[in-house]
Write a structure and sequence with these properties.
The protein is of the alpha+beta class and 151 residues long. Helices cover 38% and strands 38% of the residues.
């Protein structure tokens, strides 16, 4: 009986350790994505091919539409130069909840203009994403963004 209890506790600790590792990996992925969100490469790896994205404007689209925006605007070429993007993004209040091979991430997205004249126009959004781990790789399969109104 004691051996079974010890085994159960050991398995629980291993599972908890794995969840903490996944939590840290997803948090790191999120911050990396936000820091590089002006690049096509960041979007290519972050979003799953079967993504469902619901924007703060109430539009629904997928990864193909996100990537097509780079092709039509030439933004990737511009973002790879020394020019700063017009807005930089960061995440605050990040809450990651791992459920096996799925995870839900909720956080406050902060969009800060790089133009000093527009510095007062910081944007805030609540974002919730669903990550799925396939072939040992986490990617976002669903995303919801809600603009937080100015106070």
């Amino acid at each position: 009986m004691i051996k079974k209890l010890v085994l159960i506790l050991a398995l629980a600790l291993v599972a908890q350790s794995a969840a903490a590792t996944d939590d840290e990996e997803i948090t790191s992925m999120l911050h990396h994505f936000l820091a590089h969100s002006s690049t096509e490469a960041a979007h290519q790896s972050f979003w799953a091919d079967d993504l469902i994205y619901t924007s703060s404007a109430g539009l629904r689209f997928g990864k193909a539409e996100i990537l097509a925006g780079y092709e039509s605007s030439g933004e990737e070429a511009a973002s790879s130069s020394d020019e700063e993007p017009p807005m930089v993004y960061s995440g605050e209040e990040v809450d990651v909840r791992v459920y096996g091979d799925m995870a839900v991430v909720a956080f406050k997205l902060v969009g800060t203009p790089t133009n000093e004249a527009a510095a007062a126009d910081v944007l805030y959004y609540y974002n919730t994403g669903t990550f799925l781990k396939r072939d040992d790789i986490w990617q976002v399969v669903a995303w919801q963004a809600t603009k937080i109104p100015p106070q």
